[in-house]
Amino acid sequence: MTTLNPARTGLTRYTLGLPVVLVLLLAATQADFRSTQNLLNFSGQIGALLIVAMGQLFVTLVAGIDLSVGSVMSLASAFAATQSDPLAAVAMATALGVAVGTVNGMGVAMAGVHPLVMTLSTATFLQGLAYVVLPIPGGTIASAMTAAATGEAAGIPAPLLWCAAAALAARIVLRRTRFGAHLFAVGGHPRSAYLNGVRVKFVVVGAYVWCSVAAAWAGLFLAARVAAGDPALGASYALESVAAVALGGVQLTGGVGSVAGVVAGVLSLGLMTNGLNLFGVSPFMRGVLTGVLLLAAVSLQRRRIVGM
CA 41 to CA 209: how far, in whole Å? Predict the structure, then answer.
């Protein structure tokens, strides 16, 4: 088991306190927030973001960023909406994630392309491909997939199980595997990691593969939730996943972050969205506030670490 230095988690009282403050504020001002139905809706709303943010965490730990996650989600949903066999849809989406992650990782680690340029180029290509596969929203999602995303098991809503599975898988990899330890080493000091025998390029490629596979599964989950595919389904998730990890105390220059922090960041964004809905505020304000929170989160990171 890998024991993380507390300084490597990025957790602060602000990271953990923001979702608590939002919960107390909404509970005190909106009676509907406390309703069982709203809490169930909330778990469904944050499910896809939490899954994709867990993938973004891996890339950020190696000082990268993946702007293609939204397009991967969109294309995965298009696959799900055009396949009658749910196993085929899952296999295609997973293969998509592995392929995209490998291309992104090799472009960054071996060709030396900047992560922003590499993943933005991939995102543009995949977005166009999503419209080729599914020109307009629609299609048919297999009933088994819909049940897996909207049903319940032992009285526990399926979205909560998806969230728990994503967080648990990420925690196990980061805390109990050599690959997880190497992610922190590469993000903290790649040259030192290389001199200590870490296969730096392999670790970077692995981080991007994990991220893209997580995005593909998030796309499947979201398509199953809405019972339809959409070539623009993941449009907002690139920015939101980066905002979630930044709000969770993950250093954008690598080497610092935690699963708990990302969960806190996702909860903060989810509560913000839920609050806007309850207060009747325009949904377009969601993007505005997400951008403001991302800027604030980055600004609060120490300058000498961020390197800005």
Answer: 30
Report the greatest alpha carbon distance in the chain: 58
pTM over 0.70: yes
Per-residue pLDDT tens over the stretch 245-291: 999 999 988 999 999 999 999 999 999 988 888 888 877 777 788 88
d(CA 301, CA 184): 18
